[in-house]
Design goal:
Number of helices: 0
Low-confidence stretches: 1-53
Order of helices and strands: EEEEEEEEEEEEEEE
CATH architecture: Sandwich
Distance between the termini: 40 Å
CATH class: Mainly Beta
Structural class: mainly beta
Helix content: under 10%
Mean pLDDT: 82
C-alpha cells in the first residue's frame, strides 16, 4: 500500500476498526452533515441489546468526556491518554516517485520557534509534503474506544466538533473516518464508493490562528457512497492535502473537541 506510517501499523481486531487509508482523495463539496440520532444505536454490546451477529463493536461505545485530543507536549505518536480512549498518529501518501512527506517513520513532535512557545506550550506537529500527483497526502490519528483489548469506534456525541490551532500557509482538509466510508479490507464496512469522508477545507495563514470544525458544517465530497454522519462512530481524524494544494508546509497544535452547546 502507498503509505508512510509514523508507526508500524494500527491494529485491527475482529469486528473492530481503525482509521487511515492509502486511497483517500482529498476533495471538497457535497451536502452538509445530517447527524444520526443517538437513539439509533443501542449501548455497548452486553448480550442483551446488541444483535448476536454484530460483534463486539456492533453497538456504540460510551460517549467520551475528555476534550483534549493532543497538544503534542509528550512528543510521542499517541493521542493524549484518557480512560478507554486510544489513538495513534500516522501518515499516508500516494507515493509518487520523487515525492516527499514529513514526518516520516517514527513521529516526533517539533519544538516551536522562539517567541511562539512558553513553559506550557513547547511542541507542535509540523507537517510537510511535496510532489504527490495522484491524490495527495494525509496525516491522521486513529480514534478508538478500548475495553479489555477490544477496539471500537469512538463515540464523540457529547461534543459538537473539533477545534485546533494552526499556521501555514496552505490549504488542508480536516475530515473524519467512519466504518461506513472505509473499505472492509481496511477495517470498515464500505463496499463501494469508499473514502468519501465528511470534512471541511481550511485556508491557513502564515500566523497561528484558531480554527473550528463543527459537526453540522461537515460535508462529504459528493463523489462516493452517501452515508449519514454519525459522531458516535468515529475511527480517525485526518489533516489532508490534495494534489492541487501541494506543496504544503503547516503546523498544528492544541487539538480539542468542542462542547456540544457551542461554548468555548
Amino acid at each position: 500500500m502507498a503509505r508512510a506510517l509514523w508507526l508500524c501499523c494500527v491494529s485491527i481486531i475482529a469486528g473492530c476498526v481503525s482509521g487511515g487509508g492509502d486511497k483517500s482523495p482529498a476533495v471538497f463539496g457535497g451536502e452538509g452533515a445530517t447527524i444520526a440520532s443517538p437513539d439509533e444505536r443501542p449501548l455497548p454490546a452486553d448480550g442483551k441489546n446488541a444483535q448476536a451477529d454484530a460483534g463486539p463493536c456492533g453497538a456504540k461505545a460510551p460517549a467520551g468526556d475528555v476534550k483534549l485530543l493532543d497538544d503534542f507536549e509528550d512528543g510521542d505518536a499517541k493521542l493524549f491518554k484518557t480512560f478507554q480512549r486510544e489513538g495513534w498518529w500516522y501518515a499516508a501518501s500516494d507515493n509518487t516517485e520523487g515525492s516527499t512527506i514529513s514526518p516520516q517513520g517514527q513521529f516526533v513532535a517539533e519544538l516551536l520557534a522562539a517567541g511562539e512557545s512558553d513553559k506550557e506550550n513547547r511542541y507542535a506537529a509540523h507537517l510537510k509534503a511535496a510532489g504527490q500527483t495522484q491524490w495527495g497526502v494525509a496525516w491522521s490519528t486513529s480514534l478508538n474506544w478500548v475495553d479489555k483489548g477490544v477496539r471500537c469506534p469512538f463515540n464523540a456525541s457529547s461534543f459538537g466538533g473539533v477545534k485546533f490551532r494552526a499556521k501555514g500557509p496552505g490549504t488542508v482538509r480536516v475530515s473524519f473516518n467512519m466504518p461506513e466510508t472505509v473499505p472492509k479490507d481496511n477495517g470498515g464496512i464500505c463496499t463501494e464508493g469508499c473514502w468519501d469522508h465528511y470534512g471541511k477545507p481550511f485556508l491557513l495563514s502564515d500566523k497561528w490562528e484558531d480554527y473550528t470544525v463543527r459537526w453540522d458544517k461537515l460535508q462529504q465530497g459528493g463523489w462516493g457512497a452517501q452515508v449519514r454522519f454519525d459522531p458516535t462512530r468515529l475511527i480517525a481524524l485526518n489533516f489532508s492535502a490534495d494534489v492541487k494544494s501541494l506543496p504544503v508546509d503547516f503546523w498544528v497544535d492544541d487539538i480539542e473537541f468542542l462542547p456540544a452547546d457551542g461554548a468555548k
